[in-house]
Design a protein that fits this description.
Helices cover 32% and strands 22% of the residues. The protein has 271 residues and is α/β, with parallel strands linked by helices.
Amino acid sequence: MRRSLRSLVVLPLLLGACGGGATGTQAPGASPPAEPVGLTVLAAASLRNALERVAAGYEATQDAAILTIATDSSAALEAQIEQGAPADVFLSADVANPQKLVDAGLVAGPAVAFASNELAVIVPAGNPAGIETPADLARPGVRIIAATDAVPITRYAHQLTEHLALEPGYPAGFAVACAANVVSREANVSAIVAKIELGEGDAAIVYATDAHASSKVSTVEVPAAANVRATYAGVALRGSPNRAAASGFLAWLAGPDGQAILGTFGFLPPS
């Protein structure tokens, strides 16, 4: 059964499960097993698919580790942390939200860039509205699903439409026309993808990793010169009772092991 990332718990590595330690008894004079270190990680919704494998990979490197992971929009999670939500690590789909926590003195160290992402235009399977190029997003009557203003994907999507407006064959008012076609604003990227999967909209701009993870949407090619690179950053939080472990997890995620796992989901190295 697939584990839910709304409350994902990675159990401690059972030392000695293979061989003579399988009974759970401790040899005379042996050191007692390490106490599990629990970390609560609040993460951007676009990281959801990757975090199950990230958690398993991190757990495999530790004597004992318990991770609880919850995902939502970066802006919503940042606000919850400012309001006192208990957490150890915050992983955001941008740099701005972690920096807010740095400026507020709520972190145990600097923000660490750990990944980047590009954008994609998605349409429902079968492409009923006939969206052939991103230029079609400005066509009258096209229903675009977007996010609320505070969600990082909204800023990135606006940058993309502004870049596309400078491409040959795109009208100068392209970004304004796209904004006028937005029919729904969702709380996070996962909700945007879900609406497109259900055919409740004709198109959306999302992260490339979310587009690739869904078998119920198709992508429309975005000109490489116009695409936008989104940098993901994380912080260990000052209120964590396990600051050293929180900083250690963040360093691991930004290091070779974490990068290798993120790369299998289409994430790029931090820009």
